[in-house]
Specification:
- Keywords: Hydrolase.
- The protein has about 210 residues and is an alpha/beta fold.
- It has two domains: about 5-15 and about 85-214, Rossmann fold; about 20-75.
- The chain has eleven helices and six strands.
- The chain has helices spanning about 20-25, 35-40, 45-55, 60-75, 85-95, 110-120, 130-135, 140-150, 165-175, 190-195, 210-214; strands at about 5-10, 100-105, 125-130, 160-165, 180-185, 200.
- Strands 3-2-1-4-5-6 form a six-stranded parallel β-sheet.
- Helix 6 links the parallel strand 2 and strand 3 (about 125-130).
- The longest helix is centred in the N-terminal third of the chain and has 20 residues, at about 60-75.
């Protein structure tokens, strides 16, 4: 039995539609093609970690990360933030069946809160966390384990992790989750998600209930 579903946000429960790349270009307007490729390859990971990898200077990385978060928040405020079709109903149905739900993200806490407020999802999940709160971001298991501890679960085998990137998959596997599902509504391809070790690759989070019931 699954007692907890740990769900990624952008690309999994929230449509991205290129917002991450738009915010990245706003933060680093002179970014090289190689930098853009790195951002695409590290979708789902902590954004400050990505900027550290790119800029190799803590001050510059922090400045770029702040600019990124501000640009992304501006896009959210302008209405460029919509849920993956069916995501809210899936979450509501899971909770009605006694399954707890946690939201994780590679964004900062303020951005996560901005997205949840824009969607009217402030009270939709039982638990929310970010890399800064949990300790480390994906592909480390910290955010999944923070949800397990925060919600008082006793067994990681009662956890399902869902995300749209190989980093999400690795995070779930490293945490010991029973179900680690990749979804095709975000950055990852079927081959990439399967190659990372996903137990299931789904067209959308709408397919998650059937997996859990099975």
């Amino acid at each position: 039995m699954i007692a907890l579903a740990v769900l990624d946000m952008a690309g999994t429960t929230v449509l991205d539609d290129g917002l991450v790349e738009r915010a990245f270009h706003a933060a680093l307007p002179d970014a090289t093609p190689a930098m853009v490729d790195h951002v695409r390859a590290t979708m789902g990971q902590s954004k400050i970690t990505v900027f550290r990898d790119l800029l190799h200077d803590e001050t510059l990385a922090q400045r770029a990360n702040t600019a990124f978060e501000e640009a992304y928040a501006g896009l959210v405020d302008d209405g460029h933030c919509t849920p993956v079709p069916g995501a809210e109903q899936v979450i509501t149905d899971l909770r009605s069946r006694g399954v707890k739900v946690a939201f994780t993200t590679g964004f900062a806490r303020t951005t996560q809160e901005r997205i949840l407020a824009a969607l009217g999802w402030t009270d939709l999940a039982d638990f929310t966390t970010t890399p800064a709160q949990a300790g480390r971001g994906r592909p480390y298991p910290d955010m999944v384990l923070a949800a397990v501890l925060g919600l008082g679960l006793t067994d990681v085998r009662e956890v399902a992790v869902v995300g749209d990137t190989p980093s999400d998959v690795l995070s779930g596997l490293r945490a010991g989750a029973r179900v680690v599902a990749g979804v095709l509504t975000g950055a990852g391809t079927r081959a990439e998600l399967a190659g990372a070790g996903a137990t299931h690759v789904l067209d959308s989070i709408r397919d998650l209930p059937a997996v859990l019931e099975g």
